[in-house]
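Hey, sorry to bother you again with one of my protein questions. A protein chain has come my way and I'm curious about its shape. I'm sending you its amino acid sequence along with the backbone structure tokens. I owe you a coffee for this, so here goes:
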Amino acid sequence: MSDGVTGLSVPVLLGSVRRDRVGIRAARLIVAALTSRGHRPELVDPVVEQLPLLDRMYKEYPKGQAPAGLERLAELYRRADGFMIVSAEYNNGIPPALKNLLDHFLEEYFWRPSAIVCYSPGQFGGVRAAMQLRMTLAELGMSSIPSIFPIPRIVQVLDPEGRPLESWVESRLDRFIAEFCWYARAMKRERAGGTPY
């Protein structure tokens, strides 16, 4: 189902590097859903990116001297219209790999919305991590939209390719993505006219 707008650039940031991670299912769901609606998602996977534990933020490197991986992500983030963040819940909080991935950048996030997709093997779908993540995303300058998309019992809800196994997923996902796109379009228009600072 289309939300009536096409062409938004949306990095999908996955926050797990665990050997047996299931969050990749949620990331694949989001990438497929955005693609089917005519948008341009790109999965940012910390397993692929192999960023070191934060020592220097991207902005702290002299111009032209940042590692190639950081330079590529900075370019991707600068053209982004919004960010989808896929987070597990580890001990009531967000995964360290996600925090590390997020903290390498700052200004590249400014004035763009984010949306939180959270998951867990239990019935609460990672919402406790999502509440902490809201604070971090706001501080980074990409406040999250009001709705979140929790996925409880993820292994029973999504197959390994991210295809829904339960009927509620599609209808809730459609509303969630429509809300995110509304914020992304609105903020894109405002950025085109300038930002407060």
Remarks:
- The first strand starts at residue 9 and ends at 14.
- The helical segments are 23-36, 46-49, 68-78, 96-103, 127-139, 154-157, 168-192.
- The chain has one domain: 9-190.
- The chain has seven helices and five strands.
